[in-house]
Amino acid sequence: MDLQLSGSRQQQAVKNIRFHKTVCGVELLLNVGAGHELLEINPEFNAQDSGVYTTDSFEIYFFKKAGGHVILNQRKIEIRDNMVLFMSPFQKRHWKLEAEPADYTFLIFQEDFLNDFFADKLFTYRLLYFYQLDHALDLPLQAREMESFCEKLTEIKGELVQPKLDSEHLVRSLLYYLLLKLNREYATQNQLPLEKPENHYAYQFKKLIEQHVKEMQRVNEYAALLGISRVTLNKAVQAQFNVTAAHLLKQRLVFEIKNYLIHAELTVHEIAEALHFSEPNHLMRFFKAQTGFTTSQFLADYQNGTKA
Question: Which residues contact 27 (CB under 8 A, 6 or more apart)?
Fold first, then answer.
């Protein structure tokens, strides 16, 4: 029988930090700032040991000079000079940055804002570095590339704090350039396809997974929601992401189980119920088949630091 998660390993509720433009001092659900300004958004934030928390926004960090690490998406990511770090909404993270040196800039925005801003409800799902589970969540850059991105961020910040009649248009163009430039570089470094999609099914599928993974675990169910066949959906996903639709779905479900194991005060039986598995044994067999570990082995390794 596998480990039942209770008692000694109960965790405190993970704090979620919401984006409030009034707190950020801007008029849009978008903000740019230097690292120390994170304290203005979250007065309790301590970059040297933040504790585990989530946010309801997308975040991109541009590190010119920094050290330490962050545990994100159950991965330990070493913070290095001239690297970019990508975070999606509600990903659990735990910062442990070194106090010196620390020279970095953050870009924060909400999904609805970005999708409305560019009149594209799937825009964030087209960016390969968001909702990413297969590839790295960090991106190394050359110093000159980092400087170029930071110059664009400085321009955006100027338009946010001293808005003019045409500021929204300038912010839109600068942000669009920055996000797509990062997407191109991310695709190049991770050898991912970047062709223009023939249809939107792959991105719609990715969005639907985020919305329904806790209650829908079959590709056929998502194909039905989209009004297409499983074959059509699988072809679209393979063309756009170079993996099968089943792989994306199973990968996301495994990630959800890991999140429950690490952060929730639930037994395996309760996790199985929350994710609509008919029996706890079905969940445990699925997890072992996908990861090669039992849930108890995974948790023990994570707590010992070998899975972070």
Answer: 21, 160, 163
For 265-286, the DSSP string reads S--HHHHHHHTT-SSHHHHHHH
Identify whether the C-beta of residue 262 lies closer than 8 Å to the C-beta of residue 74. Answer: yes
46 shares a domain with 156: yes
Do 213 and 142 fall within a single domain?
no
For the segment 172-206, what is each residue's pLDDT rounded down to a tens digit? Answer: 899 999 999 999 999 999 998 876 666 689 989 99
**Tokens 């163009």 label which residue?**
173
Cβ-proximal residues to 109 (8 Å cutoff; 6+ apart), any chain: 29, 30, 31, 57, 58, 175
Quote the pLDDT of residue 6: 32
The number of C-alpha atoms within 13 Å of 132 and in the hemisphere containing its C-beta is: 24
Alpha carbon dihedral 304, 305, 306, 308, in 10-degree steps, equals: 140
Count helices and strands (H / E) in the chain: 13, 10
Structure-token pair, residue 74: 């159950």
Classified as helix, coil or strand, 46 is coil
Domain that includes residue 220, residue range:
196-303
The pLDDT value given to residue 247: 94
4: in domain: no
| 222-266: pLDDT as tens digits | 999 999 999 999 999 988 888 899 999 999 999 999 988 888 878
Evaluate whether residue 2 is within a structural domain: no
**pLDDT per residue as tens digits for the range 115-138:** 777 778 888 888 999 999 889 999
Structure tokens at 212: 């329904």
